[in-house]
Amino acid sequence: MKKEGRKKISSSAVMILLVMGMVSVSLLVGMLVFLAVYRTSVTENARISGEQAVKQVSGIIDNYMEELEDGIRLAESIFSQSENRQEELNHLVSSRTDVVAVMSYDLETGRLLESWTGKQKQKEVLLSNLSWGPEMAEKTEDGSLYVSRPHVESLLVNHYPWVVSVCKRMKEPDGTERLVVMDAQFSAIAGYVDNVGIGYHGYCFIMDRDGNLIYHPQQQLIYAGLKEEQWTLLEDYEGGTLTENGTICTVSDAQGNGWKVVGISFVSEMVNDKLWEVTALVAALLLAVLLAAFVSSLVFSRMIFHPIRGLVSAMQQFESNAEDFSYAPVRGASEIETLSVSFAHMVTRIQKLMEQVRNEEITLRKTELRALQAQINPHFLYNTLDSIAWMCEEERSREAVEMVNALARLFRISISKGHELIPIEKELEHARSYLKIQNYHYKNQFTYSFEVDENCLSYYCNKITLQPLIENAIYHGINRMIDEGEIIVRIYERGSEVIFEVEDNGVGMTEEQCSQILHHEPGDKAGIGIKNVNDRIRIYFGEQYGLSIESELDEGTKIIINMPKIREDTVE
């Protein structure tokens, strides 16, 4: 109900606030354009910073390579002296902290001929040798030095430093050429490269002229596929700075070793620090724009979006649970409130209609059940009285009396004070009385037995459920047999259901006959009871329950019913 005297806010007022927000956004965009222009000038400073960092790393690598050349020259001079080279090369390895091992290889086969490891013990059996590669003989063919990519030293026992292999051809005193390889520590260069930063997130890495990665601070992530580095794009880039996709790549060649030092920095990061200075100059304008945008968004949300979201949420709740749904109209713009009040009226009207339909459905279901029940009684009574009349004609009065008593018990159970559901124990008594009557009528032409799980006796089922099934087994199965027939009634539990089975060893039926029995209309002469049972179960419990038939010609027929487990406290 509307509150009297409360001022409503129209959509036009809301639209004014929206325009204010759009103006604020326009001002913000103008400021961003200004900052973009300013970014260009700051990028040049970032490029210069990257070049300086890369040159520093290149200088360190050049010094490192000079030390490696000095070491290999010293090894070369010792190698040419055949008398004391074993002792002196071991002393060289022990005295220099950067040298890990010196080895000589056969140029043609790559077989390890000698090795000098100083104080470190060499493995007796080498499963792999990372300090040798076929390219070493090819790269040193002209007498030049060749420096390998960093790798783990694999010759020593329990010692695995990160090394590079420096290779050079050397001559024995007898003139035979050997390839001498010196493994030197790479950890100093790696540590320096790790500590070089260009900005907060920039870094440097090393690659060779062929585009192969030599060292990268995050190379484990790269090899694991968790990080991508497009170093192959810089393979043909000799030197200088390349800016692309917000990244500044600075390349510098290290002298004499074929390596390139690449510095990576990010334009956005390098510019941000400078942007803070510019932002201080326009802080007043920015504050005004943000304040206008905040006020516009808050008012617009409260007046339009918040009520609409509440109304949509209420509609979804009503759709999922219409019966128990309650709704209070939301407050907001006048048009939204009008829509909300209309929805509240619609909810009340629909719930009343649902209650009316539900009551009509209950009345209709009870009427259908009574009609189906009334349909069974005359049909069964006719067959039973026909049997009693036959006994009287044959002057079998004692047996006729027993049949009348059995018939009385049948109808006492079938009446059941007007209840549709009765305990399974009573339904079994009803079935036994019926079988007794029919056994008299057919002069003991068949035998019958019951296999019942006692846990099922307290559950409830539709009354007169088993009798039409037994009637079908007698009339359509055993009655046509020459030999003695047999009927077995089974009741057992299966999960949340109770299963009823009536099985006979009669003549059986085809699939077409089974289908006809389940679909006979009340006016048909046969099968009225079977369809009646199936209809009553489905009306009362739902379409997932009911009756099915399994039959083979000359083998017999089994009729199966599944019902939910119903106890006395749940029976209406």
UniProtKB/TrEMBL annotation:
InterPro entries, sorted: Bact_2-comp_sensor_kinase (IPR050640), dCache_1 (IPR033479), HAMP_dom (IPR003660), HATPase_C_sf (IPR036890), HATPase_dom (IPR003594), His_kinase_dom (IPR005467), Sig_transdc_His_kin-like_C (IPR004358), Sig_transdc_His_kin_internal (IPR010559)
Positions of the HAMP domain: 302-355
Any one GO MF annotation of this record: phosphorelay sensor kinase activity
UniProt keyword terms in alphabetical order: Cell membrane, Kinase, Membrane, Phosphoprotein, Transferase, Transmembrane, Transmembrane helix, Two-component regulatory system
Recorded topology in the membrane: Multi-pass membrane protein
Transmembrane segments: 12-38, 275-300
SMART domains: HAMP, HATPase_c
Residue stretches making up the Histidine kinase domain: 466-567
Keyword set includes Iron-sulfur: no
Protein name as catalogued: histidine kinase
Protein's organism: Eisenbergiella porci
Taxonomy of the source species: Bacteria, Bacillati, Bacillota, Clostridia, Lachnospirales
